[in-house]
Amino acid sequence: MNFERFFPPLIHKALEVGPPGQWAPKPFSQNINLHAGYPHPNAIPIEDLMKAALNLSNKERDLPFQYEGSPSKKNLKILLKENSYIRGIHLDNQKMIVTAGSTQALDLTAKVLLHESDLVALESPTYMEAIEIFRNYTSNFISYPMDQKGLDVDFLAEDLAYRQKNRIQLPKLIYTVPTFHNPTGISMDLSRRTQLLKLAEEYDFLIVEDDAYGQLASKGELPPIKSFDKFDRVIYLSSMSKVIAPGLRIGWAVAPKKMVEAMSHFKKDADHAFSWAVTAYYLKHCDFSTHVQQVRSDYSKRLLFIKEALSKYMPTTIHWTEPSGGFFIWVHLPTIDTDKLLKKALAIGVSFIPGKHFFIDPCDGSEFLRLSFSYADEEQISKGIMFIASLLEV
Ligand code: PMP
């Protein structure tokens, strides 16, 4: 039976790109893994999480394993609300929803806000899974360029003015990763953050702020746009994936009350109740703040390390971004097709992500690649960069 005839047009369009991740190197293969945005194995507080799970099961018996039973499950929301996670976000007239990673928060955002004909604005390049998620709800996109200070907000302002003047459709929302952007590692500077918020007010659009890497910024550094949102323009998404463990699937959104109510309506009780309880126990009884500081400092060292390796091994024609933190660095290799380069790299045991996956139009980005410095060890990073560089000489 031709099952696909049951799908509506948007799903056909979404599936044109193939199943998610089908092209990607296997995350746990023997390759030097410079492609996955995974936390380093040592950055996951495994002992503490095991202690939390054990204490919880001893104390509450079956409750953490029930749908809603564990008293600790509720603590998670309280802790997230109180601290929100030390990023200067105050709930005031806003509400929070806890989700299965920020991925679910983004999916619910798209589900609640988007109609097929709505225009979504993206940074170019942008987080590839965000593209996949938005594609499930609309096929109408516009991309805006970035430079070393993040999204080019002046370019955006000019385009918005042009659109308004000529009665061309304006975006309903812009999706941005302003802090340690995926894939470029760049952070949007403060004046652009405020300027973007002003534009949202002026041209009546929403900002979906993905702060998945925000907790890797030191305190007071790079405040989220949401922290100065007085007009209910920002839907803020965050996560414990990069600072505790992605497998817990703990993320959240902070947004105006009505928005969160609509998201809850669709989420139902699809929560990972056990994970909520374990995470709450961990946050309450273990030293999360020291852990985050440690993790931050470890990733900063690895960032320095990958920059040094790039400077040492890459030809002078190759350039890369200058992230101040996060997991990624974005490399420009003029005249090289990075899709072809990946095949050769895999054959000698190193992986990265070709740039085209981070663009709406797959014809874009072929001269770029994303390197992740979060998962591989320093020695592997050095070897991996050396291997990739050796392929450029032939
Ligand atoms: N947003 C960005 C920019 C990311 O890089 C990631 C992780 N790759 C996510 C969201 C998803 O994170 P989570 O595990 O919280 O779903």
UniProtKB/TrEMBL annotation:
Coiled-coil segments: none
Matches recorded under InterPro entries: Aminotransferase_I/II_large (IPR004839), Class-I_PLP-dep_aminotransf (IPR050859), PyrdxlP-dep_Trfase (IPR015424), PyrdxlP-dep_Trfase_major (IPR015421), PyrdxlP-dep_Trfase_small (IPR015422)
One GO biological process term: alpha-amino acid metabolic process
Domain Aminotransferase class I/classII large: 32-383
Molecular function via GO: pyridoxal phosphate binding; transaminase activity
Keyword Repeat set for record: no
Domain of life: Bacteria
Needed co-factor(s): pyridoxal 5'-phosphate
Keyword Transferase: yes
Keywords recorded for this protein, A-Z: Aminotransferase, Pyridoxal phosphate, Transferase
UniProt similarity note: Belongs to the class-I pyridoxal-phosphate-dependent aminotransferase family.
Subunit composition and interactions: Homodimer.
Listed name of the protein: PLP-dependent aminotransferase family protein
Species of provenance: Chengkuizengella marina
